Amino acid sequence: AGSYGADREFADISISDGKGGRTLYAAASRRYMRGQSFTYPEFTDEATPVGSNAAPVGNNNYGRAEGMDREKSYSAYLALNAGGWAFQGGSSERNKQIPTAAFETLFNNKKDFTEDSKRFAEASRSMSLNDDTQLSVRAFYDWYRYRGTYLYDYALPDMVLNKDAGDAVSYGAESRLAYTGWGEENRIMFGQEYENTPRRFQSNYDVSPFVTYLDKNSPVYRWAMYAQQELSPLPALNLTLGLRYDRYKSFGNALNPRAAAVYRLGDEDTAKLLYGSAFRAPNTFEMDYKTATAAENPELKPEKVSTYEAVYEHSLPDKGFVTVSYFHNRIYRLISQITGSDGLLQFVNSGRIKTQGMEVSSKFALRGGMYGHIGYTLQDTREIGHEHMTNSPVHVASAGLSRRIPSCAATISAEGFFIGDRRTVKDTTLHATALLNLLARARPWKKGPLFYAGIYNATNAPYYVSGAGEHLQAAIRQDGRNYTVGIEHRF
Description:
Layout: E1 6-16, E2 23-33, E3 38-39, E4 64-65, E5 71-82, E6 85-97, E7 113-130, E8 133-152, E9 160-179, E10 187-206, E11 211-217, E12 220-234, E13 237-248, E14 252-264, E15 269-280, H1 284-288, E16 303-316, E17 320-332, E18 335-339, E19 345-349, E20 353-365, E21 370-383, E22 395-405, E23 410-419, E24 422-423, E25 429-430, E26 433-442, E27 450-456, E28 464-466, E29 475-477, E30 482-488
Antiparallel strand pairs: 1-2, 2-5, 3-4, 5-6, 6-7, 7-8, 8-9, 9-10, 10-11, 10-12, 12-13, 13-14, 14-15, 15-16, 16-17, 17-20, 18-19, 20-21, 21-22, 22-23, 23-26, 24-25, 26-27, 27-30, 28-29
């Protein structure tokens, strides 16, 4: 149970036949949140409405979205291991109301919601072909369904209900062969992946009067092969070299290398040099989606990143560590959402992006059952020749301290998070924010239940994230002080 009328139930069971090696695991959960009410100054009746999605003065409930943050979800999962094979499948559903009046919908109406459903099934097996050769295979099937309902005021006699839909079905297989005939320190691996998505459908239409904006299926397939070599030319030096080739129906070929060098300076110190490149193909939403408020872009290209990193690690007692790293990444053709001169949202390939910075993190143990962690990131992310990217803070930090109380199997923790100033998509500034969470868990009786509780954002600090292109709001407030309490018992 928790704030905003939230409750969650979870149950699982694990069964094993012992000698036969067969195991069965099943789990299911349910979550419901009544949600909270929000006030958005951009929609207050006293203000002059800004943008085409502002309802007429007097119909905005003084900018307050009443009970519009409701959410409910369900999930189920099943796993079976038998005869050397591993089978698993799952199902999840989520229904969410939308309080922000995104995509120029009517403010404070309870008909705006989205529904997401996902199903999956897969079978996998790892086997030894001989003492030096390992083979792993996997086959999978995925199904996804999305439905959205939105209410609009087109200045017609009646409000207009808009229906949004997406469906996808995909299946595929992968296999991986590893050879260690030249020694465990000289391992070579080959693999391939194939995925076919025959249904990748999107639609959008107004119910009455009936108007169709989108009705399109965009089937796609991808195939990839890769090779990786791990070797140790020196006792303290490990090298990894890899190369991956991808073939996408939507845009063609991509070749991406990777390399890593790990040098052990001693029993407690390690240095690493890492390089890699990767890409992300645009999805059908980014390429094909079009409505009364969004434009398609079938010419969208994949985005690509090259990454460089240097890392130093020092081991501390009780599995603790200190890590210091420097990173430098370059992104080409980053896929970004913009608002065009026609007022429509559209995904485009932006210019070259550079991000560089350093990270420091540590996990440590203290006397009296105390242990903690701390981390800090300093980063600079900007389009080359331009200012910082939106929603990209320069400073991010976290820290936590916990204490174990063995007499009642209890743990008490405090966690802090800090995020620095960042710019919104509407070129305003979100000020730095610090958040504090307090957590506790205990099992008073040796064979009894576990009790836990948490207070999040304990100081009730104002915390905002940047709105996106579909929002009128430059900043969207996040949860204030809230709590969770629960009980868990295992038999």
